[in-house]
């Protein structure tokens, strides 16, 4: 049975996020040949509609309102529920992003349905779709499905489901007018901390430092390499606890779970709780002075050596070939 | 101030998982308070100490969870509630948990409800916001700072590494992110006191909940461990030559750069 699927598109710093294209690809599978309708919420977002069509959306609905300039669960909740009321979807797909994580439980609660969050893979299509998601931060996986008939609602983890090929297509981009009222949260300011706007959960390359980085300044060579490769810097709990960096950089079972194409672990010994957060990365490189370090057990490539020798050399070497 | 904290008993983060018969084996494993819930408990105690009132910790589970509730009481919470679902609920999902908690909380006139932003086992991060929606109160997730000044609540929350500053008001549900505070260890006098603090045990009947009302919406078909990674290659030779070998391997063999 084919399904009509709503997908929430997201923008960040004036561009659509990759995860939105991935969510469309997931929605295509869930739809089993049904219609995929992308939804864009914001102050002025209609310009992005055609791009969502190019990545596979059949139709786009935009809700534009000054109160949607910043995300709030009230504002986005009202706008998205208005689209749900109009479209009566049989499935919904969000990205498992800050917005997706915050908003999806509210919508699922209003629809009194199950929500399968942080999906990394989908088996089968349409009514037979089964969703795979990590549990215990990736130490194990589970296959989940909705028990009864109801709205199938999933959030997809960035970087895991491949987007469809971009192709020029045409699809209707329409707007829905929604009265957004009674916001209980007022956003005052956003302080940018993530360097260069590369978010850890979406980064293709992550250079992570552990206790071996030794100090705040010790992260500088890592940042330099990350900038060169268009990646982000992460850290182990050891480095965060030692105050070498902000907790927002922590990767692990407490902290972020990441799945980049390339993960370079520098001066990280590889505690179980850290490995839970990164061991599903596509390629792992370990750099550590201790040849017995646990991290080498999950690494595809290892260099036994001092990160302060290896990382700058690595940066130089990449500069030569890129 | 009437403060509630939603806590969950979870596997210790240092535990290795064993799966047999399609289930995670719990025998002999160490259990802890979900680490994110510890931040919530700590914050609740801090808010109570600053503004007065009472902190009640609430969990859903079986008798085993009493240990984690006692730990929360030893940290400084005033009361604990165990909603024991062992006999009534076979399969629980986030819908189930949120429904039960909201039914318990609906007549409590909570000013502030705190929870962890995610549990390290299921990792869904849904229960907090779902409870807030059912109670029709506002919620803010992944907070790293909380200040209550009269009617105004000033919050900083982590949004993918950036810090968002916002204002809202009570009643409110918040979920704790790492960095919110440094949870205290229970002191010896705290542990002694905790033994005498009230720990109430409730069942679904006590909350007038029918088993059918809380039937899970989702179903786990299978649980499995990821395939073991093959041991990788430790490069050899002088460091500079290892580095250039690595770069060429990443480009030609792994094809990630």
From TrEMBL, chain B:
Matches recorded under Pfam families:
ETF
**SMART domains found in the cross-reference section:** ETF
Cofactors required: AMP
Its keywords, alphabetically, are: Electron transport, Transport
| GO cellular component terms given for this protein | cytosol
UniProt subunit comment: Heterodimer of an alpha and a beta subunit.
**Function, please?**
The electron transfer flavoprotein serves as a specific electron acceptor for other dehydrogenases. It transfers the electrons to the main respiratory chain via ETF-ubiquinone oxidoreductase (ETF dehydrogenase).
- Kindly provide the name given to this protein in its UniProt entry: Electron transfer flavoprotein subunit beta
Q: Which species is listed as the source?
A: Planococcus citreus
């Amino acid at each position: 049975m084919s399904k009509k699927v709503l997908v929430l598109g997201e923008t960040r710093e004036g561009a659509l996020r990759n995860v939105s294209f991935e969510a469309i690809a997931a929605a295509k599978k869930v739809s089993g040949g049904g219609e995929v309708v992308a939804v864009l919420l914001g102050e002025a977002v209609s310009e992005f509609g055609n791009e969502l069509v190019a990545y596979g959306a059949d139709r786009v609905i935009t809700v534009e309102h000054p109160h949607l300039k910043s995300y709030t669960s009230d504002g986005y909740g009202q706008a998205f529920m208005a689209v749900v009321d109009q479209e009566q979807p049989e499935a919904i797909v969000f990205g498992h992003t800050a917005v997706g994580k915050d908003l999806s439980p509210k919508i699922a609660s209003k629809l009194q349905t199950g929500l399968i969050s942080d999906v990394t893979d989908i088996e089968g299509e349409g009514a037979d779709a089964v969703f795979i998601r990590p549990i215990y931060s990736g130490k194990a996986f589970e296959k989940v499905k909705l028990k009864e008939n109801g709205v199938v609602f999933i959030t997809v983890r960035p970087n895991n489901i491949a987007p469809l090929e971009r192709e020029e297509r045409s699809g209707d981009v329409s707007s829905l007018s929604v009265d957004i009222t009674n916001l209980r949260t007022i956003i005052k300011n956003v302080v940018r901390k993530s360097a260069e706007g590369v978010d850890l959960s979406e980064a293709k390359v992550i250079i992570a430092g552990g206790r071996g980085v030794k100090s705040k300044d010790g992260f500088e060579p890592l940042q330099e390499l990350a900038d060169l490769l268009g990646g982000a810097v992460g850290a182990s709990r050891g480095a965060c606890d030692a105050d070498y960096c902000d907790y927002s950089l922590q990767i692990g079972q407490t902290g972020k779970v990441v799945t980049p194409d390339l993960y370079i672990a520098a001066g990280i010994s590889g505690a179980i709780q850290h490995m839970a957060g990164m061991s599903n990365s596509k390629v792992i490189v370990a750099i550590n002075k201790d040849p017995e370090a646990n991290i080498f057990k999950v690494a595809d490539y290892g260099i036994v050596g001092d990160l302060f020798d290896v990382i700058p050399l690595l940066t130089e070497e990449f500069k030569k070939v890129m | 101030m009437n403060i509630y904290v939603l806590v969950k008993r979870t596997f210790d983060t240092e535990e290795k998982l064993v799966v047999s018969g399609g289930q995670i084996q719990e025998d002999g494993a160490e259990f802890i308070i979900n680490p994110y819930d510890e931040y919530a408990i700590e914050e609740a105690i801090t808010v109570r100490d600053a503004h007065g009132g009472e902190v009640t910790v609430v969990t859903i589970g079986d008798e085993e969870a009493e240990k984690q509730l006692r730990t929360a009481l030893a940290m400084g919470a005033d009361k604990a509630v165990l909603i024991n679902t062992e006999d009534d609920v076979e399969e629980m999902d986030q819908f189930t948990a949120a429904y039960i908690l909201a039914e318990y909380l609906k007549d409590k006139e909570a000013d502030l409800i705190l929870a962890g932003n995610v549990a390290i086992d299921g990792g869904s991060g849904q229960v907090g916001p779902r409870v807030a929606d059912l109670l029709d109160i506002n919620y803010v997730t992944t907070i790293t700072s909380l200040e209550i000044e009269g009617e105004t609540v000033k919050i900083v929350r982590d949004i993918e590494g950036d810090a968002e500053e916002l204002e809202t008001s009570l009643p409110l549900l918040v979920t704790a992110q790492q960095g919110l505070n440094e949870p205290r260890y229970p002191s010896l006098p705290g542990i002694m006191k905790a033994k005498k603090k009230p720990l109430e045990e409730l069942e679904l009947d006590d909350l007038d909940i029918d088993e059918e009302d809380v039937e899970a919406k989702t179903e786990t078909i299978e649980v499995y461990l990821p395939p073991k990674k093959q041991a990788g290659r430790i490069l050899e030779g002088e460091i500079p030559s290892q580095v250039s070998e690595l770069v060429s391997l990443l480009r030609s063999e792994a094809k990630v750069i």
